[in-house]
Amino acid sequence: MTETPARPRRQSSRGARIAYGVVGVVGELLITLGVLLFGFLVWQLWWTDVQGNRAQAEVVRELVRETPPAPTAGATDSVKIAEPRHDAPPVLEEQSHATTFATMQVPRWDGEPERPISEGTDRATVLDVLGVGHYEGTAMPGDVGNFAVAGHRTTYAKPFNRVAELKKGDPVVVRTSTLDGSAGTDTWYVYRVVSTQIVAPTDVQVIAPVPNEPDEQPTKRMMTMTTCHPMFSARERYIVHLELDYWAPVSSGTPAELVGSTTAKGR
Amino acid sequence: MMYGWLWRHLPGPTLVRVLISLVLLAAVVAACFAWLYPAIAPHMPFNETTVGE
Fold first, then answer.
1. Domains of chain A by start residue, with CATH
2. Full DSSP string of A203-257
3. pTM score, two decimals?
């Protein structure tokens, strides 16, 4: 009884050792793969934000642009408020690919930094590295038509992360910078949200000159923000349509919309 | 198995081996963040954001 199982056990233990070895290596490979995939998530959801925020803050800092004037002596406000203008605004010429020509600020997104807007919407040269991208061929800020921009929702500094918080009437302030030699003057364009919609990625008529009416001639000065929806997915697009409320030269002051967001919390 | 082999071939006492392991791990993470992940990111399904226009 004790001798008979001894032989097969020795044989099976050698075979078992090889089998265990293979299983062990495969197991370790699978665990390694799992750890690497987790690392990818950390990189995609955290590190691209760290890098992107750093890079985009640097882009905004390096913009050559006019500074809004300081308040006149004796004024109670901390900054000079720009006088809203409703006549035809100056319009910048469309810039070359990946050129940063403006920034945008959204008072509703308290705590979010000023984001650069650059020409083009491809990921490698604009959206992943420069933040917000301007759809080539759509109107420029302030112009009649549709100034359409795109931004990431959950990665690469996620400039449009809080897009779903925007409500009808919320201001979005675009500021062009032209002092590097571009024709035009530094201008504030204050847009206000008129509607939001969720569409399929193929519904490109949302950025038509008249949003959703590709065959119509534009008469209004619109802006459209597009980003991914739902969050962490690219299955649909979240769209925000805005219309120009007023404009003002940067040299005339700061839009009242921005003063509240920088001084008063919880607006 | 693989890691056991690596552990056995690291020189020095346990503390030194642990330190070397941590350095190796940090190097692998750094390499992934710098090259591997940026390279595979465009091929991830949730990163298909552009439609032909």
1. 58-69+78-258 (2.40.260.10)
2. -GGGGSSSTT-TTSPP-SEEEEEEEEESTT--SEEEEEEEEEEEEEEGGG-B-HH
3. 0.84
Residues in CB range of A109: below 8 A, 6 or more apart: A162, A165
Residue-level pLDDT at A259: 85
Q: Could you tell me if B14 lies within 8 Å of chain A, comparing CB atoms?
A: no
- pLDDT per position as a tens digit, B2-38: 888 899 999 989 999 999 999 999 999 999 999 999 9
Q: What is the ipTM of this complex?
A: 0.87
The better pLDDT of the pair B51, A194 is held by A194
> Chain B neighbours among A 183-242 (CB < 8 Å)?
201-202, 204, 228, 232-234
List all residues 6 or more positions away from A140 whose beta carbon is below 8 Å from its beta carbon.
Answer: A91, A92, A93, A94, A134, A147
- The confidence score (pLDDT) of residue B15 equals 94
CA–CA separation, B53 and B51 (whole Å): 6
